[in-house]
Amino acid sequence: DGGITQSPKYLFRKEGQNVTLSCEQNLNHDAMYWYRQDPGQGLRLIYYSQIVNDFQKGDIAEGYSVSREKKESFPLTVTSAQKNPTAFYLCASRPRDRGNNQPQHFGDGTRLSIL
Amino acid sequence: AQSVTQLDSHVSVSEGTPVLLRCNYSSSYSPSLFWYVQHPNKGLQLLLKYTSAATLVKGINGFEAEFKKSETSFHLTKPSAHMSDAAEYFCVVNLSGNTGKLIFGQGTTLQVKP
Question: What is the DSSP string of B72-83?
Answer without folding.
Answer: TEEEEEESS--G
